[in-house]
Amino acid sequence: MSYCRLCQKDRVLRNSHIVPEFLYGELYNNKHQLMGIHGRGSKGCEVQQKGLREYLFCDDCEQHFNECFEKPFRRAWVENCPLLDPWEAEDVYWIHVDYKSFKLFHLSVLFRAGVSSLPTFAQVSLGPHEERLRRMLWEQDAGPVELYPIFGYAVIHHKTKRVVQMVSKAQANKFGGRRCYGFMYGGVQWWIGVASDTNHELQKVSLRCDGQMPFTAVPWNEVSVVQEASHVLRKGGI
Ligand SMILES: [Zn+2]
């Protein structure tokens, strides 16, 4: 028995994913192994059979994550992929999603990363946002647009323009002076702002309450975390 980080009860904990397993699907190579991207660690590169896991949540809470956040995102983003692939568009391309389930999915990844003690997610330090996010996920409350704004850009190969599928370590950055946490999965580098501000420029590029979200594409060799990952993979001989 141990303390579940979502319901906060003493329960038997499951070995939980931080980023859901289905987002690693296209990363399996022909040996059916996964190229895990850890950044520049002492080992350089580690090949894993599955995504990173940690004992964090009870069975009921895992079901809650799965039914409320992961299944809708998997259907909307992975099975009916709305990204252009290849991405030839020069201009901003708008994608329509379900505001509530889409936003809650990304917040669930951020929350999992925040409560994780794994080095891959060490950049994420939520402080008082951890409890706020926990409540929002528990109550399935996506909050208003200015609270935890989400924006992102598709990551594409510089020549083929095909969308690059990769799961990255967590990143922390500042946009317009606001702290944001970043994750790459589902062909997109996502950023979530952890401060709310009703008049901030981030909102112009973020998910809107009607579910509209603007996307552009950035070549993989201009995305620092992908460059770092490819360097690690080369070092590891993959
Ligand atoms: Zn629980």
List the helices and strands and how they pair.
Layout: E1 2-3, E2 10-11, E3 13-17, E4 34-36, E5 46-48, E6 53-58, H1 59-79, E7 93-96, H2 99-115, H3 129-138, E8 150-156, E9 171-175, E10 178-185, E11 188-193, H4 202-205, E12 212-215, E13 217-219, H5 224-235
Parallel strand pairs: 8-13
Antiparallel strand pairs: 1-2, 3-6, 4-5, 7-12, 8-11, 9-10, 10-11
Helix pairs in contact: 1-2, 2-3
Bound molecules: zinc ion.
Description:
This protein has helices at residues 59-79, 99-115, 129-138, 202-205, 224-235; strands spanning 2-3, 10-11, 13-17, 34-36, 46-48, 53-58, 93-96, 150-156, 171-175, 178-185, 188-193, 212-215, 217-219. It is an alpha+beta fold. It has one domain. Helix 1 packs across helix 2.
Question: Notable features of this structure?
Answer:
single chain, alpha+beta, two-stranded antiparallel ribbon, binds zinc ion, 238 residues, 5 helices
Structural class: alpha+beta
The kinds of small molecule bound in this structure are: zinc ion
- Beta percentage is 15-25%
**Number of helical runs?**
5
CA-atom Rg in angstroms? 17 Å
Q: How many domain regions?
A: 1
Task: Compute the average pLDDT.
Answer: 84
The biggest beta sheet is recorded as: 5 strands, mixed
Low-pLDDT stretches are 28-49
Short account of what is shown:
The protein is 27% helix and 24% strand. The chain contains 5 helices and 13 strands. The chain has a 5-stranded mixed sheet. It has a two-stranded antiparallel ribbon with strand order 1-2. The protein has a two-stranded antiparallel sheet with strand order 3-6.
